[in-house]
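We close this part of the discussion by returning to an individual protein. Part of our work consisted of pairing the sequence of a single chain with a tokenised description of its backbone. No coordinates are needed to read the tokens, only the vocabulary itself. The amino acid sequence and the backbone structure tokens for this protein are reproduced below:
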Amino acid sequence: MDDRLVQFDNKMTKSLGNLHEEFNGIRAGRANPHVLDRLRVDYYGTPTPVQQVANVNVPEPRMLQIQPWEPSMVKVIEKAILSSDLGINPTNDGKVIRLAFPELTEERRKELAKDIKKKGEAAKVAVRNIRRDANDTFKKLGKKDDISEDEIKDLEGEIQKMTDKYIAEIDKAVEEKTKEILTV
């Protein structure tokens, strides 16, 4: 791959990776520890991921169990969960916090499917913006470094192929996540 294309490929890869991370945070009616990935708790004045202050495990398909290493963190974690957009009320016994994942209703599944499509579209826009930046960069190179128009056209063709590849991967990821959400 041309060295001038590598940086744009890396940016597109990051956009796709970000989409996958966002999809991990969408709960599909089953307990998934990744729904807590973006959740931060105040640990001695520092916003810290829940996984760094507690053990998180899945004792049953619809139950997440969070066991803080310090008993004082139970209330802090519980408060963070309540103020998040998870939509689940935690229960605790003083030592362990439990999150019971309810069965998703048909209406909620359709809402989540729309949300997934929206996130997919945002990722596509990001990839297209990277393509636009790349094309602008190539045009500037042509003026500055006396690169031939044919070479610029080749670079633009390569960046278009790369864009098409990532758009297809985003579509595939959206389709898979939608299918997972809509499967009862």
Summary: The helical segments are 3-24, 73-83, 106-145, 149-182. Strands lie at 40-43, 46-49, 54-60, 63-68, 91-92, 97-100.
